[in-house]
Write a structure and sequence with these properties.
Layout: H1 4-12, H2 18-27, H3 30-35, H4 38-43, H5 48-53, H6 59-70, E1 74-78, H7 86-89, E2 97-101, E3 112-116, H8 123-138, E4 142-145, H9 151-161, E5 166-169, H10 183-192, E6 194-197, H11 209-220, E7 223-226, H12 235-244, E8 248-251, H13 262-269, E9 273-274, H14 278-285, H15 306-309, H16 311-320, E10 325-326, H17 327-334, H18 338-350, E11 354-357, E12 361-364
Length: about 375
């Protein structure tokens, strides 16, 4: 458990400003900082009101935080703690402390890849996120994301299906789950991985906190993979921060007609690596992974599908391709009846091989089991 001095400091200043970081560095510890005269703190750039609050902490709030920390699997890892993740400490605006829910805090120091993207992805984007997360998790990487709906959730699920190594960084209090529909997913992550937040128990959900938490996702990770994103997606903030921190950035390309590919294409134009297979990411990260033991992808990760081995279905998929095609055009080219085509497309859609699009159009997906 962190010393009470850290709790007092976090109550006064929950996020790390440059002035507080300098004051902490000069003092040498949170205990010493609390003993520093107010006048000296103010002369170092601390606002007088903030410096005064160090002397008058909210004891009831401190008691609530201590009760939370007493529960199994709960911890506070402060900036001066040896277990504070070294990669995160390197960034200029590293949080003063991390609130953690989960028993395997060693994951914070593990080789991590952030996977982020749209909250409203296509089914193909969701499948890609799950596949990459599972493949890379089985290969030894810890998958880090933000527990949002869409690509974030798919990435966590993929990692749980792999070796279970995943970290969810919250943009709200550590005792909250947002969105609430992800409570069961969060519980699974806490059992196998870690839930992390810079925000203490009881902190409400505020919009500005979610872009702010992106720096932690990027800072913890060796690189960031963007799966699907519009040009204005918050995922591009995470990618930009990763680049600013000297970390690798990857993006999955998509159709030029897909608005959710536009952000990825921008990243690629700006220098991000094109990610078509998980092993490409491992190869790019290899210089940073030389000390780790990464095995080959699990043999169960096969793309073979008995349905698509049928010659009739294989012909239809060849005609379909990966760009949207009108059902009327498929009907003529395939030489099928409307009923036959409808049945085959339905089975392929149920198998995750084909996606139905507005306007009676269909496109092929990369099927990964």
């Amino acid at each position: 458990m962190a010393p009470e001095a850290w709790l007092v400091l976090l109550q006064t200043q929950p996020s790390a400003t440059a002035a507080w970081r300098r004051a902490l560095q000069r003092a040498g510890s949170a205990d010493a900082l609390l003993a520093t005269p107010v006048r000296e703190l103010v002369s170092g750039g601390i606002a007088p009101e903030s410096a005064a609050r160090l002397r008058e902490p909210d004891r009831e709030l401190l008691a609530r935080w201590l009760r939370w920390l007493d529960e199994r699997g709960h911890a506070l890892i402060a900036l001066d703690d040896p277990t504070y993740p070294a990669r995160l400490r390197e960034i200029p605006d590293a949080p003063l402390a991390l609130w953690v829910d989960g028993t395997d805090t060693a994951l914070l120091a593990a080789a991590q890849l952030a996977i982020v993207g749209s909250r409203n992805p296509t089914s193909g984007g969701r499948a890609n996120a799950e596949y990459f997360a599972e493949h890379l998790s089985r290969s030894g990487l810890t998958i880090t994301s933000g527990l949002a709906t869409g690509i974030d959730s798919a990435s966590h699920r993929g990692a749980l299906a792999g070796n279970g190594s995943t970290i969810a960084v919250l943009g709200c209090g550590i005792d909250s789950v947002y969105p609430r529909r992800n409570r069961k997913l969060a519980a699974r992550i806490a059992e196998c991985g870690l839930i992390v937040s810079e925000y203490p128990p009881g902190t409400p959900v505020r919009p500005f906190q979610f872009p702010q938490r992106n720096r932690i996702i990027a800072g913890l990770s060796l690189g960031t993979l963007v799966v699907e994103a519009t040009r204005r997606s918050g995922s591009l903030i995470t990618a930009r921060l990763a680049a600013d921190y000297g970390r690798e950035v990857f993006a999955i390309p998509g159709s030029i007609h897909n608005p959710l590919a536009k952000g990825c294409h921008k990243l690629i134009r700006d220098g991000a690596g094109i990610a078509e297979e998980g092993d490409e990411i491992l190869a790019e990260l290899a210089p940073q992974l030389v000390a780790a033991d990464f095995g080959q992808p699990d043999s169960t990760m096969s793309s073979k599908d008995p349905l698509t081995d049928d010659p009739a279905y294989a012909k239809l998929l060849d005609l379909l391709g990966f760009e949207p095609v009108r059902a009327a055009d498929l009907l003529e080219a395939a030489g099928l009846t409307a009923a036959e085509l409808s049945s085959m497309l339905l089975l392929l859609e149920m198998g995750g091989v084909v996606e139905a699009l507005p306007g009676a159009r269909y496109c092929r997906l990369v099927k990964r089991n």
